[in-house]
Design the sequence.
């Protein structure tokens, strides 16, 4: 039985993935791509939770990942419906065009 | 971390995950962006298997790749006029630098506690399966642990379903 | 051990990747490649294309996908309970009944609202 990959590497990977997702959120103009980057960030959090659940031999991390996935599904359903509605209304989902709520 | 089969699998899945993420962040065509997202999510599913969370890996494939990525594909098709736009980044340098600063902060805030200060994480982990699907079911449904979050998740799903129907149907009436 | 159980899945992934790669490369190398204007047309059947090919899809498809995602997650909540059903007994059945009841309320709503009809 070969030894397992240490937790530090999973944490490192999740860190890089989170930074990439944050970069996507900051950088992209398209609302759908911003949403996808948010999904990447959620996935990196899931990865870290599962890694620490294995580290401490506790199951709570797994339960947390499960609920994060559920909330992500609900969030995507509502968020993409909103994006589609906005597109129907304004013919654009460029986030730079959506500044009506600015003071 | 010596060279063996699990290490190779970890490296391969890490490359798949990060490559998919880079593809999402830099893609020109939105459709390809969704495909890159699926690639990245698949890599995360493989990493979940390496973390001996097989049920979560299956859920990852079913929910994320099978449902969420498909929903993204539909949304791309519904907002079709801008599948590829030349001006895809805003304020490139400011944002790249701020993401870099975020990464450095993470590195400082994660590497120091995990590697240096906390010697407790240095005991060797095993891949012995810690949570089977049965354990998960008992933890979710039995009264002592997570039954309230479980029911609230059901309520959340109902609310999301009703809300999505209301919003999307209004858009439908308006568009046609 | 759990990880060895995934060896067949890993072998299948590797074989599928190699096979797809081989098929693409071989057809690129050995297949004749003589494009003409008519062959490159969107429909290679003599029809002239009318209007843009990128036409928007009606929102109804999106509605179906949303309903699918919600029920997908619901079924995944059912699975751990179903595996552990013998240990949980009547109490688990009641908890699951409350969970299902909430989703049935949403289901009735969408049925009455006509979201399941295609028209």
Sequence:
């Amino acid at each position: 039985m070969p030894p397992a990959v240490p937790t530090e590497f999973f944490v490192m990977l999740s860190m890089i993935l989170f930074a990439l997702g944050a970069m996507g959120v900051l950088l992209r103009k398209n609302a759908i791509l911003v949403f996808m980057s948010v999904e990447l960030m959620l996935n990196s959090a899931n990865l870290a939770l599962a890694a620490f659940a294995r580290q401490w031999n506790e199951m709570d991390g797994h339960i947390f990942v499960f609920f994060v996935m559920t909330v992500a599904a609900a969030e995507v359903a509502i968020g993409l419906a909103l994006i589609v509605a906005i597109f129907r209304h304004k013919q654009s989902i460029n986030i730079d065009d959506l500044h009506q709520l600015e003071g | 971390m010596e060279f063996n089969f699990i290490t190779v699998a970890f490296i391969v899945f890490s490359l798949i995950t990060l490559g998919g993420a880079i593809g999402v962040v830099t893609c020109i065509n939105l459709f390809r962006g969704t495909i890159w997202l699926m690639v990245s999510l698949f890599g995360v599913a493989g990493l979940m298997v390496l973390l001996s969370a097989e049920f979560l890996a299956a859920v990852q494939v079913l929910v994320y790749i099978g449902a969420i990525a498909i929903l993204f594909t539909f949304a791309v098709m519904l907002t079709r006029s801008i599948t590829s736009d030349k001006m895809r980044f805003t304020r490139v340098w400011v944002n790249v630098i701020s993401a870099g600063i975020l990464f450095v902060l993470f590195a400082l805030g994660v590497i120091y506690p995990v590697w240096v200060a906390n010697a407790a994480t240095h005991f060797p982990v095993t891949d012995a399966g810690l949570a089977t699907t049965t354990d998960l079911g008992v933890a979710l449904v039995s009264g002592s642990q997570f039954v309230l979050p479980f029911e609230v998740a059901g309520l959340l799903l109902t609310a999301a379903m009703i809300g999505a129907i209301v919003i999307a149907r209004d858009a439908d009436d308006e568009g046609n | 051990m759990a990880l060895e159980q995934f060896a067949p899945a890993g072998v299948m992934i590797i074989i599928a990747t190699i096979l797809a790669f081989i098929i693409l490369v071989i057809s690129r190398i050995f297949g004749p490649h003589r494009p003409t204007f008519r062959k490159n047309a969107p429909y290679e059947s003599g029809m002239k294309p009318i209007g843009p090919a990128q036409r928007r899809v009606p929102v109804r498809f999106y509605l179906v996908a949303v309903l699918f995602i919600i029920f997908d997650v619901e079924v995944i909540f059912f699975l751990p309970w179903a595996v552990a059903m013998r240990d949980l007994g009547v109490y688990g059945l009641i908890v699951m009944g409350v969970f299902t009841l909430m989703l049935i309320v949403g289901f009735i709503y969408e049925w009455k609202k006509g979201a399941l009809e295609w028209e």
